[in-house]
């Protein structure tokens, strides 16, 4: 059995070696030639999994150690009988930590997060943890998630995007990237929405780059509609907009979810799915310690993340976006 693995997925090569030959490569070097005789592909977002990669391949399992599947042609995989597994929620606590650290970096001396209203757009894995932690910190939390609201879920008091634009001091997006359906999220934060903002909020994107329109963010900063932006997920990354990079108060290279615990969860979730796919009597275990439960609540002190240091590094080295991302030193998640 030949297994092709993105070499930047940690804790995974040793357990896979018991199954067969493991080929570990940078995501950008996984191509059709490599996949021709491969049975399994374990990847991240930088490998586009579609006909160009997989036509003629015997691969029947793709595991992505990421929350999203934007890089995978799911329709093509279904048609070819290729099982696809991802890792939903694996890094949600780390992304919530990034948001709160970004918010703390923007408040004035003597202020606290409890003084602020945060608008959370998207109440899934990340959003739900962020809502819980922000509420425990005393923040006023406004939640928008039309699909969950329309599904009749009563886990939060949902409100409108218009109300968030009127009342929020911080607005953060945590949606998947979609282009169609009743609630498309591509350029959800657009020029019209930015112009409707009333309290000069800080706008944060640690979801998917194209959920926010770069031109709208620059317009908001230029007109004063936005007091600041914090970006972890960029349109066009790794070729990020230099003006937005220069203007952003917080700028990181798509590492909001890069906690040690999140990486362990992601690797284990992919191995669990592969074990089921192969019908293994003894499931594969990541070469890493067990991860404890997510904190129910945290204090400001527990956020414990110097986001300004990561911002300074990216601003000084934007051309090294991929290197900074691939070689990021994993940080610990907050503890209650």
- Stretches where pLDDT falls below 50 for ≥5 residues? none
Task: Tell me the distance between the termini.
Answer: 43 Å
Radius of gyration, in Å, reads: 20 Å
As a percent range, the share of helical residues equals 25-40%
Strand order of the largest sheet: 7-6-8-9-10-11
Total beta-strand segments: 11
Q: Assembly type of the shown chains?
A: single chain
Q: Which structural category do the helix and sheet elements fall into?
A: alpha/beta
The biggest sheet amounts to: 6 strands, parallel
Please write the string of helix (H) and strand (E) elements: EHEHEHEHEHEHEHHEHEHEHEHHHH
Shape: globular
Strand content: 5-15%
What is the residue-mean pLDDT, rounded to a whole number?
96
Individual helix count: 15
Keywords:
11 strands; 5-stranded parallel sheet; 15 helices; 6-stranded parallel sheet; 336 residues; single chain; alpha/beta
């Amino acid at each position: 059995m030949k297994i092709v693995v993105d070499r930047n997925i940690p804790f995974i090569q040793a357990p896979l070696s018991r199954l067969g030959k493991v080929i570990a490569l940078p995501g950008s070097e996984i191509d059709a030639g490599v996949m021709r005789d491969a049975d399994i592909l374990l990847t991240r977002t930088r490998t586009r999994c579609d006909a160009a990669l997989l036509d003629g391949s015997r691969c029947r399992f793709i595991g992505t150690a990421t929350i999203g599947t934007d890089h995978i042609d799911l329709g093509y995989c279904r048609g070819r009988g290729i099982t696809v597994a991802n890792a939903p929620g694996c890094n949600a606590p780390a992304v919530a930590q990034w948001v709160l650290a970004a918010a703390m970096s923007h408040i004035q001396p003597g202020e606290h997060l409890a003084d602020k209203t945060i608008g959370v757009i998207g109440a899934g894995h990340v959003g739900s943890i962020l809502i819980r932690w922000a509420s425990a910190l005393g923040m006023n939390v406004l939640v928008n998630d039309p699909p969950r609201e329309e599904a009749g879920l009563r886990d939060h008091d949902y409100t409108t995007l218009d109300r968030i634009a009127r009342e929020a001091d911080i607005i953060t997006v945590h949606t998947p990237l979609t282009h169609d359906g009743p609630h498309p999220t591509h350029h959800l934060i657009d020029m019209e929405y930015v112009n409707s903002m009333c309290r000069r909020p800080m706008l944060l994107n640690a979801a998917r780059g194209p959920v926010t329109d770069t031109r709208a963010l620059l317009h908001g900063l230029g007109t004063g509609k936005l007091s600041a932006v914090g970006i972890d997920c960029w349109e066009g990354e790794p070729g990020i907009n230099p003006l937005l990079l220069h203007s952003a108060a917080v700028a990181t290279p798509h590492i909001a979810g890069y906690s040690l615990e999140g990486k362990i969860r992601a690797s284990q979730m992919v191995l669990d799915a592969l074990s089921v796919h192969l019908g293994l009597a003894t499931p594969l275990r990541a070469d890493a310690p067990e991860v404890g439960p997510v904190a129910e609540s945290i204090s400001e002190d527990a956020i414990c993340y110097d986001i300004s240091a990561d911002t300074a590094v990216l601003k000084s080295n934007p051309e090294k976006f991929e290197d900074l991302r691939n070689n990021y030193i994993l940080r610990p998640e907050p503890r209650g």
